[in-house]
Amino acid sequence: MIKWGVWLVSLIALGGFKFNEVEYPLPDYTKNSPAWYARNDSYIPAETELPAILQLAQSATMTFDLASADYDKDGVLNQYDPSSYDWRETGYNPFAALAFLNWDHQWNYFAFKGENLDKAVAALKKAGIAYVRMDFSWSDIEPSQGKWDFSRYDRLVKLLSENNIRILGIFSYCAGWAANPPDYLWCSAPVDNKFFTNYATAVIKRYKNQVKYWEVWNEPDSRTYWRPQDMLVGYTALLKEVYQAAKAEDPSCKILIGGLAEGYKIEWLYKNGGKDYFDIVNFHILISPLRPAPFKAAQSAIVQVKKIMSRFGDSKKRIWITELGCPGVSKDLSVPQWWNGPNPDEQHQSDWVKVIFTELTKEEQVDKIFWAFFRDTKAYFGNGVDYFGLIGWDFTEKPGYKALAEIIKNWKPPK
User: Fold this and answer.
1) Residues 116 and 165 in one domain
2) Of 24, 33, 138, 316, which residue is most buried, by most CB within 10 angstroms?
3) In the chain, % of residues over pLDDT 70
């Protein structure tokens, strides 16, 4: 409640929110219940964030509608909204997807080149998906030291912003020139953290009016994505540097850890002193709906992470599940199984979508769930993982897509 008091005093001092010389009325939160404060505490801007949010709101390209009961267009009525002018949020909307929208390379068959990108964004919007998780690849943006190319990402950010789809941007992975040793793998830890921090800062500076959530790397607890593995010692050092640089550039941004492949390994991050260098806890739950009691297994993963957070005095942070999905393979196809055994078919996938987005979204502290993936990949993984998409490679809507669209259509934000 201390945070709330600081925020309220700050608002009184500022005299309300002014946009285009028009004074915006501020909701009266004094009658809200303790349950409301418990849910919304993490969304109430801290004193250091507030001036940045107001400044960015005044320079935002979106149009505020004074007559609207939801003038930040986040799906929550102003009277229930902890920050009703704060367009970082989409209210309590938990519906999100991992979409490799930056994939426009030979190795991914130019998955989102040209009109394919427009088709994908149109499909996201049609379904009602509020957030996408996607890479801001270091090797694309700074292919050689000091040489910058934002053209691909300028188009992506503009297109998503115009369609009111928020972005969780991933700082990933290692540019070849900065690998350790040089010309090592893309999953190498950078030879010097300052190179990575410079890149992350440049990206935030360019997009801070549109992107407010940033994830530092992906699955740093997995040898597939971070080498050498050292129980997150090297990664924690990188996270600390990026966090401080990010907050200096944009105090209103939020930093997520690199979504952990195994949530319980967040204990390593705490033991390495990382507690104060991220705002949101995120990890992945990739289990087969064909296994016994899959929903209970997903719940157990969340409970386990919560216990670790509580043990390290960090129980108030919110949780995002940044990858949760399974294959949906047509019964007409013969596809090698994924790492979790036999491939679920399209109906199994659809049933799993329904369970996840109607039941797991009720879990306390879990704010967003990102389905992995939004679109099938083309012979990239060589097994059932290529069929994780809710839409096919040819953009055909699979049963899981239709199921999620129906859930979103009938969803109402909690008050």
Assistant:
1) yes
2) 138
3) 91
The 10s digit of each residue's pLDDT in 273-321 is 999 999 999 999 999 999 999 999 999 999 999 999 999 999 999 999 9
Q: What is the CA radius of gyration of the chain?
A: 21
Q: What is the pTM of this model?
A: 0.93
d(C-alpha 222, C-alpha 392), whole Å: 28
- Smallest Cα–Cα separation from 214: which of 320, 69, 348, 141? 320
Task: Write the secondary structure of 160-196 as one string of H (helix), E (strand) and C (coil).
Answer: HHHCCCEEEEEEECCCHHHECCCCCCCCECECCHHHH
Return the exposure string of 266-280: e unless at least 16 CB atoms fall within 10 Å of the residue's CB, then b.
bbbbbebebbebbbb
Q: Please say which residue of 53, 80, 107 terminates a domain.
A: 80
DSSP string computed for 85-108: T-TT-BTB--EEEE--TT--SGGG
Whether a cis peptide bond, with omega within 30° of 0, leads into 342 is no
What is the pLDDT at residue 143? 96
Tell me if residue 327 falls in helix, strand or coil.
coil
Question: How far apart, in whole angstroms, are the C-alpha atoms of residue 21 and residue 141?
Answer: 38
239 within some domain: yes
Number of compact structural domains in the chain: 2
